[in-house]
Amino acid sequence: MSHHGELDGRHVLVLTTNYGTEQDELRRPMTVLREAGARVTVAAQKDEEVRTLVSDRHPGAAVTPDTTLAAATADGYDAVVVPGGTLNADVLRTDADARRLVEAFARAGKPVAAICHGPWLLVDSGLARGRELTSYPSLRPDLENAGATWQDREVVVDASGDHPLITSRRPGDLDAFSEAIVRALGDGGDRTRHA
Q1: Is 4 in the active site?
Q2: Is 116 a catalytic residue?
Q3: Per-residue pLDDT reduced to its tens digit, 21-48
Q4: Which one of 12, 108, 169, 181 is least enclosed by Cβ atoms within 10 Å?
């Protein structure tokens, strides 16, 4: 689906560590959002290249971050995206700045999107409780223990809480995941702020 220009004026923050992020879960949403006109900023733990992996084990493309997790804030952004990759997600969930950022987006009522192992960060940030979501299937017990309702669907959009929550299971769900982020930003209803 083409969304050319649909997200002009929208600005999305992507959170990642510098090693172990699943290549397509980082790059595909960035590409779709940029093609729709959004500005995408990548925040990494360190100000050095992000070395991605494919299927958690094969070297993937390097991505140059725009800022660091410590320097980033939710101000001026319309949504946050948390890619997976087991190593990335396991480190990200313990990163105080990553937790601070997703909590700030949630408090501001802005969409929080996470895929695959990314929802681990929702557990450690307290954002899973009482929400409907999905994830890589092995995370289901963690998310249910954190008070979430887990569903086996390619994308789950939960608009019931204080902020939209968009989650997907695996790289095969990236089209649906990316589309859901574009939709959440496209009909946010508060476009006048960005006009």
Answers
A1: no
A2: yes
A3: 999 999 999 999 999 999 999 999 999 9
A4: 108
